[in-house]
Design goal:
The complex is a heterodimer of chains A (370) and B (309).
Chain A: E1 7-16, E2 19-29, E3 34-38, H1 45-53, E4 60-65, E5 68-69, E6 80-83, H2 95-99, H3 101-106, H4 110-123, H5 139-152, E7 157-161, H6 169-186, E8 189-194, H7 197-203, E9 206-211, E10 214-219, H8 221-226, H9 231-236, E11 241-251, E12 254-259, E13 264-268, E14 282-287, E15 293-294, E16 304-314, E17 318-325, E18 330-336, E19 349-353, E20 359-363
Parallel strand pairs in A: 3-8, 3-9, 6-7, 7-8
Antiparallel strand pairs in A: 1-2, 1-4, 4-5, 9-10, 11-12, 11-14, 12-13, 14-20, 15-19, 16-17, 16-19, 17-18
Chain B: H1 2-14, H2 16-45, H3 65-72, H4 83-116, H5 121-131, H6 138-149, H7 154-161, H8 176-185, H9 187-199, H10 203-211, H11 216-244, H12 248-253, H13 261-271, H14 275-299, H15 304-308
Helix pairs in contact in B: 1-2, 2-14, 3-14, 4-8, 4-9, 4-11, 6-8, 9-11, 10-11, 11-14, 13-14
Chain lengths: 370, 309
Amino acid sequence: MSSGVAIDLENVWIKFGDFVAVREANVNINGGDFFSFLGPSGCGKTTILRAISGFLEPSDGRILIGGADMAGIGPNKRPTALIFQNLALFPLMKVWENIAFSMEVAGASAAERRKRADELLDMIALDGQGDKLPSELSGGQKQRVAIARALCANPDVLLLDEPLSALDLKLRQHMRTELREIRRRVGITFIYITHDQGEALTMSDTVAVMKSGVIDQIDTGHNIYDHPSTPFVASFVGENNLFRGKIKQISGNEAVISTRRSGDLLAQITPSQVGKLSVGNEAMLFIRPEALELSDSKATGKTSISANVVNQEFEGNSFSVFLEGDGGKQIKMSVPNLGQDNIAAAGENLSLRYDAANAVVMPVGELASE
Amino acid sequence: MKKKMIFSEFFKNNGVVMGSLLMGLVGFWLVFLIVLPQLSMLDYSFRFNLPPAEQGGPKDVYTLSNYQQLIYGSDTTRQTYNTVDLMVFVRTIIAAMAVTIFNIFLCYPLAYFLGQSKGSGFVRLLVVLLIIPYWINEILRAFALRIIFGDSGLLNEALMLLHLTREPIDFIRQDIALYAGLGYAYILLMLFPMYNVIESLDRNQIEAARDMGASWLRIHRRIVIPHAKPGIASGATMVFMLSAGALAAPQILGGPSSLWFTQLVYQWFNDSLNWQQGAAYAIVLLASTIIIVLTVMKAFKVNMGDIGK
C-alpha cells in the first residue's frame, strides 16, 4: 500500500486565448489526501483537473506530482488516472475488458488481465459480473467499474471529475461513503472535482473553493463552513444570512457592525480576516440559519435581531423559518425538528439571538450568484 | 404484438385520415415501386423470348433456359461454359469489392476528422464542398473524369510537366479511370454513414483510452472502429451494391476491352430486345450481391438492424 503522492501547483495560470480559466493557482496536496476542488460550473475546476492529468499544459507555472515537474509529460505517462464525469466506459467491451484495459495496453496476457479484473471486481463487490456489458449494469455499478478501471493501473493519484453527478440522491450519498472507503483501502491521493458542497464537505480532507478561475480558500471542510475567508465562500458553501453595514468598533477578535436595517450586531473576526477590517469601512456579516435561535427575553443586545415570521417550511430534520426584519430584511432561521408541531405562526414577532462566535465578518466582496 | 402498438401509436399521433394517407403512400411505394417490379423481373427471367403473337399461347411456359444461357452460353450440349459472360460477372463482383474496400480506407480518416472536430465552421464548409460536385449529373461527372484521365487530359499533362512520365498513360485502357470513377461516384454514401457514427462517439472514451496509455492505433482498433462498424457496414453495403450495379461509369470510363456485368444486362434489354434474358442476368446479379453482403455482414458480426440506424 502506497502512502500516496503529493501534488503541487506552483503559480499555475491556464489561458485559452484571452480568457483566463485559472489564475495563479497555488495548491499543495498532501500524499494520500482526499482533496476537492469545489466551485460553480465554469469556475475552472475541471480545467485544473485536466492540467493535472496532462490533457492540457498550463500557460504558466508548474505542476509537480511527487515532486517531479510534469511539463511536457502526456496523460499516458503520468501516474494519474482520470474518472470522467460521464465515466466513459467502453460500451462495446465487457466489464472485465474495460477494467483491464490499461493492462491490455501494457501487453498483459488475457489470463493475467482476467485475474486482475476479477480481483478488482471483488473489491468493488461486483464479483461474477465481469462478462456483462457496461449497459447491463446499474448507474452505481457502472460508477464502481469506472473506479476499478482507473485503479487497475495502480495509479498514484486518482482524479475524479464530478463522477457522482448523474446518480440519484440516495445512490450519491451511498457512493460518497464508498469512495472514502475505497480511498482508505488503496491509500492513494484522490483529487475530486464537484459543484456539490455536500460531496466536498463529507468526503474531503481538504477543500479548495474556486470562483471564476481563482482559488478563494483552501482548508478543511469544517473550517470552510465555519470560517469562510471571502463573501463568495460564505455564500456558496451552505446557506447564510448576509447583513451589510459599516464597522463601528473593533475590540480584540470581535467587531461591532452597524447594519443598515438590523441595528448593531456583534461578530467574530476570524484569523484570516485579521488586519483586513478597519473602523468605518463597509463590511459583510454572515450568520448561518442554524446559528440563529429563539430568544426567551425581548432583549435587544448586539447579538439579537427582531423579526416577523413570514412562513415556515418543514424540511424533515429541521424547520426553515423565513422572517422579515426591520425594513423588509429577509432572514432565514433553521430549527432542528425535535418533535415540535410548529415553530411560530405567520405574522408573529420573534426575538432571535446568536453567539458572536458563530457570526463572521469580512470586507465587502463578490457573492455567489442566487 | 409490438408492430400493432407502433401502428396504433402512429394513427393516434397523426389522426386517422392523415395516418391512412401516409400508410397508403408507404404501401404504394413498397408494393408498386419495389415488390411488383422485382416480381415481374423474376417472372420474365423464367420465360422464353417470344414474339407478341405467341405470348400467352401454348409455347409461353416457364423455363430455365435464360439462366442456362449465362452458365453455358448458347451451347445446347452443356459441354462448355459461357466463359466470357461468367468472367465479366466475376470481374464485376471483384472490382466492386475492391472499390468498396478502397472507399473504406479513403473515407475512414476523413470521417474521423470530420466527426471528431464537430461544430467547427471549417468542417461544415468542408462537408458542403464535398456535396457540391454531386449536384452535377452522374453522367456529366463521368465525362469530366474521362476528360481528366484522357491522353491529353489534366492528369497526363500534369504528370508530363513534372517529368514523372514521358508518354501519356492510358488510364482508360488500364481501367484506372473506371475504378476511380466508380470510387468517386458513391464515395459520399460511404463517407456520411461513417461520419454520422463517428460523430456520435463520446470524445471522453478516446481520452480515457489515452489516459490509460493506449496508442493511436489501439484507440482506433479497440474503440473507434468497433463503434463505427455499423456505419462502415452501411456505407460498404451501399457502395458495393451500387458499384456492382453501376452503368454510367463503366459505359463512359470503361476501356474498350472491359465489360461490366450491367452492360451485358443493358445489351440484352436494349440491343437484343431480349428482356427475358436480361432479367435473368439482372436477377443473378441481384441475388449474388445480396448473398455476398449477407455473408460479409455475418463474418464481421454486423446485424441488419444496426445498418438501419
